[in-house]
Amino acid sequence: MYKQIYLKKGKEDSLLRKHPWVFSGAIAGMDDGIEEGEVVRVLTRSGDFIGVGHYQIGSITVRILSFSDVKIDAHFWESRLAAALAVREAIGVVRPEESVANKSLTINNTYRLVHGEGDNLPGLIVDVYDKTCVVQAHSVGMHVFRHDIANALKAVMGDRIESIYYKSETTLPFKADLGQENGFILGKTDNNVAIENGLKFHIDWLKGQKTGFFVDQRENRSLLEFYAKGRSVLNMFCYTGGFSVYAMRGGAELVHSVDSSAKAVELTNANIALNFPNDTRHAAYCEDAFKYLDANNDKYDLIVLDPPAFAKHRSALKNGLRGYTRLNVKGFEKIKKGGILFTFSCSQVVTKEQFRQAVFTAAAQTGRKVRILHQIHQPADHPINIYHLEGEYLKGLVLYVE
């Protein structure tokens, strides 16, 4: 029997609406000896069952795994992962090899298999790159159960995967003192090339950001490809060069990639060479974004602004919104007349309305005439739990600038 946590009177309302978080302020008491990462049962003050989940020290004290009184065992993990896989098959990101000219051609083997609360597995991220799963824990509980999860992944995915890499050094709470190290927990491979919509990418799951690649921009990269033909493209904060590679395939006249990280520039150049060897249309620069924009006026008619999160916590929201306004002012000032601007925020604490207001403010400050062509967000393999709207983190606008 799992140990139990009791809520204060009236604090169960959000949980009855299936929101998966129990905040520390809602707790009236708990059994002795509960360890961080342990599975607990959550009860009302009067003793009625609410849910079962992982306990963690902090503002989010329990992440609910199930609102049914179930055992968190191999069957649980396998059933949840199978449900996540079924979603990816239904939306078509998990596709069989397609026969083209009597040859087997893999169109896409890059996708997110588990998206935390969106797949009813709060604290867990799993991205698939060809035959490798990269697993990331954002809670102590998911770290504690990492080997059970790996075994369940192999059981559900079968021959689809051959290795599982665990990458959670930077995502787990440092105060938990888990002594975590990244590394393979099942199999091993040196092959780090995966395919997204027919394009090849080196995936840096060893030292790269997130799980090694920004899977969440896949559909937005395809949209940019549609607009790239004949244009001069600037990809700011390029990281792996995803937008740059798609722009090249879309027929861009020239593509320039900019990042302050020399490692990112190196990775971008490698991905361009992987798909377009010896193509002179592309150049990459290791430079600060604002300095580069200041030095390049009226040179590009398609600009991508995809910065890292400017506001990672609610306390940084005001400064983050100022940062988005300042960056978009530069974009509006520098883009050619008739240009198209792709602009994004991946800050979870920034709402769609707040981001749009920041971009509106930037347009007003520059006096440019701007039309919204698309309002874009994360793709379907990053689903949003309808009871947990905090999962909607990526937002973006595609703008026509006169």
Structure notes:
This protein has 402 residues and is α/β, with parallel strands linked by helices. It is 28% helix and 30% strand. It has helices spanning 13-16, 74-91, 140-144, 146-157, 218-227, 242-249, 262-275, 289-295, 317-334, 352-366; strands at residues 3-7, 21-23, 27-30, 39-43, 49-55, 60-66, 98-100, 103-105, 110-115, 124-129, 132-137, 163-166, 183-186, 193-196, 199-202, 232-236, 254-259, 282-286, 300-305, 335-345, 370-377, 395-401. The strands form five sheets. Strands 18-17-16-19-20-22-21 form a seven-stranded mixed sheet, sandwiched between helices. Strand 10 (124-129) and strand 11 form a beta hairpin. Helix 5 (218-227) packs parallel to helix 6 (242-249).
